[in-house]
Amino acid sequence: MRFLQKIGFPTLAIIALLANGCKEVGPSIDLTNGKHNVLIDTTYVESTLQAAENKNVLIELFTGVSCINCPAAHVTLDNVIAANPGRVFGIAMHSTAEPASQDELPPGARQNLGSADAQTIVAHYGEPGARPVGAVDRVVHSATFLNSIFDIAGNFNGYTSTQLAKTTPVNMTLTSTYDASARSGVILTELHYTTAQPDSDKLTIYLIEDSIVTSQLQADNSDDTNYVHNDIMRVAVTNALGDRINTTLTAGTVVKKAYTYTVDAAWRPEHMRLIAFVHRFAGSDEILQVKDVKLQ
């Protein structure tokens, strides 16, 4: 079931998001590129380049509640994030068609964490056949999984250090406006390219929930019914594989995109945030920059 749709939003919120872009002329919006919830799609070129900001890193962990080795990988992910505050972001992906030994909910499960969008992602990159596996900035770091982006959690720290040392060609800012009474929001992404790019990139945004208490099988096959799950990808705000940035990316290019989204009644907005990242898609899927913002 899709939880995203194009929605109305309080006029004042839309005016606030548009306030800094009233002099810009944006291209036509290709609604077939995403989930039909695009509010703003504007590009222009600024005369003064911004200084390049530090590159951040995204780790996507493909995990499962019936995977006895996954809790150790959760700890590894948490440790890498804690060691690099504000620079490393994590997403826990629960696909809807996991390997046979991991696709059933434990007896004490309160909810299903599976996401159709997570399934789209793992299907696109090829089912690795086991959990836990993860991707660091969607870079092929080794031939462990037949030259795929997936690798074992034990390699996250080393790969993260390599990625953090790189420079990013694009600066990113995120602004979130959330209407609690309507359970709907707007996220505005602003991208400032400091270096020309050989091809157009993609922008991807996910809605994430933390502090979800439900079952998780442990290494000894016991069922921890009060396990706290963090970084859970609930749904993609954009297309699950990203929305293409349809413009020539010269140094100084600014791209502003705003999307509407809704929060399902079963989710808790006070524990939710949005993760946005820019990535390549021609020849490489490397993530160039990533940030997050709380629903507010």
In short:
The protein has 296 residues and is of the alpha+beta class. It is built from four helices and 16 strands.
The N- to C-terminal Cα distance equals 25 Å
* Percent range of helical residues: 10-25%
Quickly give the structural class. alpha+beta
Taking the sheet with the most strands, its summary is: 5 strands, antiparallel
Count structural domains: 1
* Total helical elements: 4
Work out the oligomeric state of the chains in this entry.
single chain
Extended strand count: 16
State which percent range the strand residues make up. 25-35%
- Gyration radius from CA atoms, angstroms: 19 Å
Description:
Helix content is 14%, strand content 31%. The chain has one domain: Immunoglobulins (Immunoglobulin-like), CATH 2.60.40. It has 296 residues and is an alpha+beta fold. The strands form five sheets. Strands 7, 12, 13, 15 and 16 form a five-stranded antiparallel beta sheet that branches. A four-stranded antiparallel beta sheet has the order 1-14-6-5, with helices on one face. The protein has a three-stranded mixed beta sheet with strand order 3-2-4. It is globular and about 60 Å long. It contains four helices and 16 strands. The N terminus is likely disordered.
